Amino acid sequence: MYDFTGKVCLVTGGTSGIGARVSERLVECGAQLIVLGRDPGKGFLLADQLGSACRFIECDVADAGRVERAFGIVRKDFGRLDCAFNNAGVTARYGAIADSCPDDWARVIGINLNGTYHSLRQELRMMAAQDGVGAIVNTSSCAGVVPIGGQVAYVASKHAINAMSQVAALEYARTGSGGSIRVNAIAPGPILGGMNNEERLKASPENTQRKIDVTAMKRFGTADEVANAVLWLLSDQASYVTGMVMPIDGGYGSGKF
Ligand SMILES: NC(=O)c1ccc[n+]([C@@H]2O[C@H](COP(=O)([O-])OP(=O)(O)OC[C@H]3O[C@@H](n4cnc5c(N)ncnc54)[C@H](OP(=O)(O)O)[C@@H]3O)[C@@H](O)[C@H]2O)c1
Q: Domain spanning 8-248 has what CATH number?
């Protein structure tokens, strides 16, 4: 069990799936948590469930102005930020590049890549201005490491998130105070819940089986298994780890089998 007592932590896309589980675990570990999300119904319900340690702020991360305003609230009401998990993301419509649609490309790049950039930029500014110390994890995907066909916007957005995380890791590995803001990415394989909720899995049994088959472990992962890695990367236990893209994928990216 990690100890986040006294730490102010922020999760984007914390209202369901992986983000919700990481949010629950951070609160269990003593953090003061801020969740950014689009859907106020889901957000205020989560905040009710997690109690006074959790504050929900409605924010579409694709909108730079809204992200700036949300961080203004964080600065005013919390005064500091120690850890952040940039997890908000969506999938693209399935289809080959020639058949894909520019609006869908813009939507997915807008949320996954631009949204991560807008959040990361505000987090780095806050952490650098306070004491130059912090930890950030960005959510990539196994598809951000090994490309898959039919999802060009998603694959491109996640590959770019890896690169952006590494650029940030280099820029903030040693800050003016002599401290570090560590920035890492996670690359989950197929995880149950969220984008792989029961309804979607049942709707397409063939697709579901394919997701299992591409893992070496022949199973889905769980949100808890992802949360274990995220909490470790955000904790002081990972104090010498920065610029890593960590697979949590049941061996999906390890090679052909
Ligand atoms: N599940 C998997 O198998 C898997 C595998 C690899 C990577 N991932 C990545 O893991 C992350 C979470 O996925 P998940 O499976 O847990 O899916 P999910 O349950 O659909 O979670 C996505 C979260 O992102 C939020 N979100 C979406 N657009 C947003 C926006 N414009 N502004 C703010 N929040 C926004 C959603 O909130 P609202 O409902 O309020 O919009 C929701 O909380 C994603 O980045 C995804 O690419 C998932």
A: 3.40.50.720
